[in-house]
Amino acid sequence: MSNTTTIVTNPDVRHDYVIIMEGRICNPNGDPNAGNAPRQLPNSHIYATPTSMSNRINQTAELLYGVSNLYHSGNNLDNIQQQYMKDKKTPADLMMDYWDRRGNGGLFASFGKDKKEVIDTGFRGIYRLYPSVSINIPSLIEQAVTSATTNSKGNRTMGNASYIDWVITKGTGTFNACINKQRNNIIDAEYMGQWLICLWHHAMQTASLQRGEWDLVECVIATHSTPYGNAQLSKISNLVSVNVDEQTQTHSIDLGTTPEGVTLTRLSDAIAGLQSKYPPIVNKLAVQ
Fold first, then answer.
1. Cα–Cα distance measured from residue 210 to residue 205, given in angstroms and rounded to the nearest whole number
2. What's the average model confidence in pLDDT over 12-26?
3. Phi, psi angles (nearest 5°) of residue 204
4. How far is CA 244 from the centre of its chain?
């Protein structure tokens, strides 16, 4: 394993992530309260929720590694939880069995119909992602859906779709090594390597979730020398400057001077080593 791969997949220390995304003629994250148009802040900047990014990562893991995700179409969460309790299994067992729960946590807060029988099963997520907000203010494009559909009354109708022309967003995330240690280090280097590979390749998902050209252009990984970290996430985010040129629709990324005890790594520089150490099973199937 290369030294860079070892650094960015060390589960014993905190890692922060500054995630830069680029979108062209796309809807990064639709707002159901606004006709599924791109989500907008009051200042007209668009944003994507951390849940949407987590879903992209988790579902990419299904494609690349053949893993099982708990929050998946067809899964009855209550039935799954009840079966685990009947089998005297723990929330940690559930986390290890389902790829998305292993890192995201967010398991059921409790189990049991009667308050006296409630068993605390809540697990906080070890990986945390935060909203990705645009650097520029993109133009919104309205497009009529040309294929006719039928509404609830059985009448034929036409729909609309909303897109943005070009956007660069910046978001953050973190890996909490302290929580991981409390759980006896259930997150290992292999899982972290797979997580980063799926973050890099999230655009390999189905078109319905991709919503156009919405791709990762860079992720800057800040690796701390301690489990609790050497600098706040806000300071890490400020180290990554994203400059955009609206006329040419191009961007550049500059990195500042790192605090003591923090190492910055561009995922674009580490991805080859990660894929070599933790190759997706689709590559193996292709060889066969």
1. 6
2. 95
3. -80, 5
4. 23
How far the first Cα of the chain sits from its last, in Å, is 25
Count of helix runs (H) and strand runs (E) in the chain: 11, 14
pLDDT in tens, 61-76: 998 999 998 887 778 7
Residue type, 178: C
23 touches 214 (CB < 8 A):
yes
Give the E-state strand segments of the chain in sequence order. Answer: 15-26, 30-31, 37-38, 47-48, 110-111, 119-120, 127-129, 132-134, 140-150, 156-175, 213-224, 240-245, 250-255, 262-266
The C-alpha atoms of residue 89 and residue 97 are separated, in whole angstroms, by 11
Q: Which two tokens stand for residue 197?
A: 């590979």
**Other C-beta atoms lying within 10 Å of the C-beta of residue 216:** 18
Question: How much of the chain, in percent, has pLDDT values that exceed 90?
Answer: 53
